[in-house]
Amino acid sequence: MRPFLLNLALGCLLMPLAAVAGEIDQAQALKTLAQPGAVLIDVRSADEFATGALPGAQLIPHDQIGARIGAAVPDKNTPIVLYCRSGRRSSLAQDELQALGYRHVINAGGYDQFKLASGQDAQEPTCSDC
Length: 130
Fold this sequence. Notes:
By secondary structure, the protein is of the alpha/beta class. The protein contains 6 helices and 4 strands; from the N terminus they run H-H-E-H-E-H-E-H-E-H. The N and C termini lie far apart (51 Å).
């Protein structure tokens, strides 16, 4: 009975952590994007992307990142910067990419905040397959 209660208590303590975004590092994201060959990926939905995106961003919704990243970024040493609306989905995508072996993945956090930090204006997105 004790192991069951201990596991239940630990499970309850750890459950809220799963919903929290991973570390957001906008300064490192900006440095990473300055590197040659760095890739910027918007992991929001196609509808969100259609309302505006950062210049040069590719759309790969977070729930498709594992299936589509190989075609977009075949080299696992390529620097990748992810953003979404708030940083939660980009954190999930970051975890998945790291589990797939991608070594340089940065969570830039939310679109509006990162747009301000980067000093860039949104541009009309060009999405060929969304």
